[in-house]
């Protein structure tokens, strides 16, 4: 049914509007860029799901979130190098007929994710 993501900034208690994200397919462990985008005001990909209903295929994927760039842009003083720079999430889609929602809860020092609905 598709693939979506949503990022919440737990330091400021708001959506991570403006965070840069990259989506890859990773067949055989080789990353192939699908698209780059910047999160909208709600912390979601502009234009809706990353893959719509019927276009998601089974396989492996990677989302890369530019966490340090986002927090620097918010004026947060980060050490060099930052504790978290880019957060990479590798995940598999076993049932392409289901929806896969990949949220990220993030601060400059921690992150959490899960398969949402």
Low-confidence stretches: none
CATH topology: Immunoglobulin-like
Total number of domains: 1
Major sheet description? 4 strands, mixed
Mean pLDDT: 97
Task: Explain this structure.
- Helix content is 6%, strand content 43%.
- Strands 2-1-7-8 form a four-stranded mixed beta sheet, with no helix packed on it. A four-stranded antiparallel beta sheet has the order 4-3-5-6.
- The protein has one helix at 67-73, and strands at residues 2-9, 14-15, 20-25, 32-38, 59-66, 86-93, 99-106, 111-113.
- With 117 residues, it is mainly beta.
- The protein has a single domain, classed as Transthyretin/hydroxyisourate hydrolase domain (Immunoglobulin-like).
Q: What is this structure, in a nutshell?
A:
This protein is mainly beta and 117 residues long. The protein has one helix and eight strands, in the order E-E-E-E-E-H-E-E-E.
Topology (SSEs and partners):
Layout: E1 2-9, E2 14-15, E3 20-25, E4 32-38, E5 59-66, H1 67-73, E6 86-93, E7 99-106, E8 111-113
Parallel strand pairs: 1-7
Antiparallel strand pairs: 1-2, 3-4, 3-5, 5-6, 7-8
Question: Which properties best describe this structure?
Answer:
single chain; 117 residues; mainly beta; Immunoglobulin-like; four-stranded mixed sheet; four-stranded antiparallel sheet; 1 helix; 8 strands
